[in-house]
Amino acid sequence: xxxIFALFLxxxxxxxxxxxxxxxxxxxxxxxxxxxxxxxxxxxxxxxxVQATFLLCGYRLEQYPKEAKRIFDEGxxxxxxxxxxxxxxxxxxxxxxxxxxxxxxLLPEGCRPVFLRPPGGKSSKILENGAKRAGLxxxxxxxxxxxxxxxxxxxxxxxxxxTVRDGDVILLHDMSDSSVDAALSIIDELTEQGFTFxxxxxxxxxxxxxxxxxxxxxxx
Length: 220
Description:
This protein has helices at residues 2-14, 36-48, 58-63, 65-73, 93-104, 125-134, 153-163, 177-192, 200-206, and strands at residues 23-30, 53-56, 77-80, 115-116, 137-139, 169-173, 195-198, 216-217. It is of the alpha/beta class and 220 residues long.
């Protein structure tokens, strides 16, 4: 019996052990804060111990300052999405500077954003230069289920699950129940698949990437 056990132990030790590769993704939410949808999303994220990135609009910060403060206080990342949600690609330097300054002035105290996401993801040389002057990287995305155009949470979820890979930036919105339902279901399913959710800035850090102001990032 001892010889059999010893042989079994040797075989186990001889077998290579493969560590499961870590898979990281960032959930990002545009256009908020938006009242009850943001509150419900934050409740779900808190229950799952997940951090996300919120790209906030200035005019909505004026409407929902408590929700913005909660986002920041609970450790989520905040980035800029402009003040008016107008296309930044069509703005001149003065208009862009005003959009950024007016939004920055409304962020919770102590919040220092790393990213700007222009509405629609549309960029321009003026925008890139403006972001560079403001010290902001330009955050795009690599997975877009177009949740803003659908009330079908299951379809939104399935699109993300089917296409997501390690290092992806997922675009969602905290503007409807279907989007919130989809986001929480995505977290649950991808967690089961071994993914870890982090903020966009943390994802960049984990991948060894230093954010360069004015540069566009779609994934890490």
